[in-house]
Design brief:
This protein has one domain: TIM Barrel (Alpha-Beta Barrel). Helix 1 crosses helix 12. It is globular. By secondary structure, the protein is α/β, with parallel strands linked by helices. The strands form 2 sheets. Strands 1, 2, 3, 4, 5, 6 and 7 form a 7-stranded mixed beta sheet that branches. A 3-stranded parallel beta sheet has the order 8-9-10. The protein contains 13 helices and 10 strands. The longest helix is centred in the last third of the chain and has 22 residues. A hairpin with a 2-residue loop joins strand 3 and strand 4. The structure holds zinc ion. The site of zinc ion (ZN) has 5 residues, from loops. Zinc ion binds next to loops.
Length: about 350
């Protein structure tokens, strides 16, 4: 039997959804423990946990769908992308690079550097201006999560915000603008992320997109029935479009009423197993949502990432399969988006 720690050290392990502190936070290279920095991801923890790459999200909370609201959201996303780009530097023997293509992620891995892939969470950040997507792409963003909690101008959310006046549905899935945004993302080589999107909107995006769509941080609804999770119909749609769901470390998505200390690595891998059985191994990945609410007993910060590999080995996955789950599948999607983009 292979040694999980040895195997984990060789993997190109990618976490497809991580939040950053905003507007300020500890230095990314601060080596202090989690209880001092308040952060679950930094360069030393990634290195200690054998993490080779991560998608760092410029996250914009849902706000008013007004010109002022959109301008503020767009400015915040651009400033956060600048901050994410600013994480790349060398400090001591840890090197961090921005990587905006699959090849660049692999090159960083070969060179022993940690790769950061920028992303934007919440299409609210583009307001009604499709041109903003090119501005995000110019700052390296490789995916856009179409919504967050609350409907925006692009699509309905899985979690309407009554406090913002949301009803159950605003657009019946994607709006006309949302459909145009999906095609613009395709043109730019950005992936379409359906985490947070309503079931109807997610299905429409999967049908419309010229490249595989994915859920960068969601779990399986059949195992934990919350609207944020992906139901069987959507899993089949993700499989059929060549996409994937990246299981995430949010306790309440992994177990009904789940709390951080009551959820384990075994619960997490149950969700992986479910999608592998239903859709095939090529359609599953891994994300933490660290510093955005994710974390549970056994995977409390990036330094503990090897525990997932140990559980995958215990369940009989081989090295190639574990490599695909931890990053190979996601790199395939990045490449598909790059190939389909209009240069
Ligand atoms: Zn999220």
């Amino acid at each position: 039997m292979m040694d999980p720690a040895e195997l984990h050290a060789t993997l190109l392990a990618i976490d497809t959804h991580i939040d950053i502190p905003w507007p300020t936070g500890p230095d990314f290279f601060d080596d202090s423990p989690r209880d001092q920095t308040g952060r679950r991801v930094d360069a030393p923890k990634m290195r200690a946990g054998g993490m080779k790459a991560g998608c760092f999200a410029a996250y914009v909370p849902q706000g008013p769908r007004t010109p002022e609201g959109w301008e503020a959201a767009g400015n915040r996303a651009l400033a956060m992308l600048d901050a994410i780009n600013g994480l790349a530097r060398d400090a001591g023997d840890i090197r961090v690079r921005i990587a905006t293509t699959a090849n660049a992620v692999e090159a960083a891995h070969r060179d022993g550097a940690i790769a950061i892939v920028p992303a934007v969470e919440n299409g609210h950040a583009m307001g009604e201006d499709l041109g903003m997507l090119a501005a995000f792409r110019a700052k390296g963003a490789r995916y856009l999560t179409l919504t967050h909690n609350g409907h925006n101008a692009l699509a309905d959310s899985s979690n309407p915000r009554k406090d913002l006046g949301d009803g159950e549905t605003l657009h019946g899935g994607l709006s006309e603008l949302g459909r145009a945004a999906v095609l613009e993302l395709n043109r730019l080589g950005m992936l379409v992320d359906i985490s947070h999107v309503s079931a109807q909107g997610a299905l429409q995006a999967a049908m419309l997109s010229r490249t595989p769509v994915l859920a960068t941080h969601s779990c399986v609804r059949a195992l934990c029935d919350v609207p944020r999770n992906v139901d069987d119909l959507m899993l089949d749609a993700l499989r059929d479009c060549g996409g994937m769901v990246n299981i995430t470390a949010m306790p309440s998505f992994l177990r009904p009423g789940g709390r951080p200390d009551g959820v384990t690595v075994s619960d997490f891998v149950d969700h992986i197993d479910y999608v592998v059985k239903r859709c095939g191994l090529a359609h599953v990945g891994i994300s933490s949502d660290f510093d955005g609410g994710g974390a549970f007993s056994g995977w409390r910060d990036a330094s503990e990432s090897g525990n997932l590999t140990a559980e995958l080995v215990r369940r009989g996955y081989d090295a190639a399969e574990i490599g695909a789950l931890w990053g190979g599948n996601f790199l395939r999607l990045l490449r598909r988006a790059e190939e389909a983009a209009d240069a």
